[in-house]
Amino acid sequence: MQMPKHSDEAKEHFRSLVTDAPGVEVKPMFGSLGAFVNGNMFAGLFGEDVGVKLDDAGLDELRVIPGSGPFGPAERPMGGYLSLPAELDDAAKTAWVDRARDHVATLPPKVKKPKK
Q1: Once rounded to an integer, what is the mean pLDDT over residues 82-97?
Q2: DSSP 2-21
Q3: Using the 8-state DSSP alphabet, how is residue 75 labeled?
Q4: Strand ranges for the chain from DSSP E
């Protein structure tokens, strides 16, 4: 599985799309970045693509927007996530990222596994 490279500009752009909120953090993940709320990932960067985790209604709504599509490696896209269309302006992308955060914030907080 080939992991795409992403630029420092793409990382900074991703960070700029994530609104500060309680329990939210952006951190490295598999050589890329992920945005988490209460330990659960709600958005990620894969190459230059920004992906968001949404409920079924949100996925259906995003899926019909031209340019959206699977998120992650082509051989194994991430379930429950879709890539945002590159053509969307930053305000629209931020709105989708916020929507993903609000959805994932309803999930139980991720409990860290004890170190062995």
Answers
A1: 97
A2: PPPP--HHHHHHHHHHS---
A3: T
A4: 24-29, 32-37, 40-46, 49-53, 69-70, 81-83
User: Per this entry, what is the length of the chain?
Assistant: 116
Q: Are 52 and 97 in contact (CB under 8 A)?
A: yes
Written as six digits, the tokens of 93 are 């992308």
Q: What are phi and psi for residue 19, nearest 5 degrees?
A: -75, 140
90-104 helix and 56-63 helix, angle to the nearest 10 degrees: 160
Q: Which residue has the tokens 């992308």?
A: 93
Closest CA to 36 of 56, 46, 21, 55: 21
Query: CA–CA distance from 74 to each of 3, 60, 85 (Å)?
Result: 10, 20, 16
For residues 32 and 83, the model is more confident at: 83
